[in-house]
Write a structure and sequence with these properties.
Helices cover about 45% and strands about 15% of the residues. It has about 375 residues and is of the alpha/beta class. It folds into two domains: about 190 residues, Rossmann fold; about 140 residues, Orthogonal Bundle (N-(1-d-carboxylethyl)-l-norvaline Dehydrogenase, domain 2). It is globular.
Amino acid sequence: MNNNRITVIGAGHGGKSMAAHLAVMGAEVTLYNRTWKNIELIAERSGITLRGEGVEKGFGQLALVTSDIEEAVRASRIIMVVVPAFAHADIAARMAPYLADEQIVVLNPGRTFGAIEFRKVLNNYGCLAKVLIAEAQTLIYACRSDGPTQAYLYRVKDGVPVAAFPATDTAAVLEALHPFFPQFINGKSVLHTGLDNIGAIFHPTITLHNAGWIETSGGEFQFYIDGVTPSISRVMEAVDRERLRIGQALGINLMSAVEWLEMAYDSIGENLMEAIHNQQGYRGIKAPSTINHRYVNEDIPMSLVPMASLGRKLGVRVRGMESLIRLACIIRQKDYWESGRTVEKLGLDHLTPDDLRSLALGNDNHLLLSIFNSESFITAV
């Protein structure tokens, strides 16, 4: 299949930006969204206008705009899934009947353990195709949809780790993506990409601690610049230390949030707040207009819950993470432990740190079979 043909699943901020950017760069792009009315105007124009900083701008002509998942899956070898992580299981179930050998599916991003969940759902739905499943550590763009057929890129990240599950497939995935995304680099394993998920540290902490300001102003302030104060930065640093300790308990080295900002944006500082404020791409990005936002609804159950769940399993104190999860549950009146990814739901609770590393690297096919056949796994479809 032709690597120049790329399907983008999802037409939110990230999906529209990726579809437009790929099309402007010369790819033959199919854009899929489950709800037709959200892409109807894009279909009428046959494309998306891309604006932004430091990127090739213009009109991204799309080859196909569709709400037919079979049509979208069969159109391309490379499928970029750009939807909130709580939709990954549903998308996997919808795609399962139509995937073919040698296709590549990349979650942008996977959040925490997204690729493991995705592959397991495919298995549960009887997908026998030899599909390469991978996840990006973070979305490659800082972007916004600024109109029904427009997208704006504030910044394309300098480096974004990507890992396949298992990691033996990573080189093939990177090779296929390189012509359009040379910024993608080897993320080692899905343990690294999942636990180096810095959005889990930034998004919910800033949002929850600015809840009053968001509700009063409707988000009329700069999220990263105005919303990150010395006190809030200290909370992020404390939660980040817990994340690093989970990595140590697994026997893997993770990046600190400060190190991540330097890798992704070449932004440095003496502390986390300074490094965030020095990231020029964050300037102009407004806060969410409501607490009912993916920074809570996605990043708590699909990022912090699996991290904290793994931390508990490994005997790591994760009181900062647990406090944020509890606060989110109270504010949103939801049980994110019940709806989120946990090691029990993913069938990982019986594995040792050595087992988890072997599973991620692809060193033991018996471990893959053990989690795929686990009755504890529940799909969110």
